[in-house]
Amino acid sequence: MINLMKVGVLGLFLLAGCTTLTVQTDYETGYDFQALRTYAWLEDKAPSNDIRINNSLIINRVVNAVNNNLKFKGYKQVDKDKADFYVNWFGGIENRIQQETINTYYGHLGYDSALWGYGG
């Protein structure tokens, strides 16, 4: 159960770097996270059914970025049976429609009476 919690907390941190959504975390406050030294990837399953995410280019970029960041922080990747915690990721794409209006009419020419065709 604790390993699952560790994966969840790490997953939330990873998602925070990919989005502007508000991230909330919940963890056992008495747990000694300083004792964690080794990690392993949880599954080799595809992170999504969407072909825009489920391709080797995206998967390799995410895995390499996570590995580099964890290595920089002093964690070592090991076999699954020797890991202190597990890492996994999931991806998704949200389609949004953005509407932009481009006006094709001309505005008025100002308040100068010569431009309006009257005056004297």
Automatic annotation (TrEMBL):
One Pfam family in the UniProt entry: DUF4136
Domain DUF4136: 23-118
Protein name per the record: DUF4136 domain-containing protein
InterPro entries, per database record: DUF4136
Organism this protein belongs to: hydrothermal vent metagenome
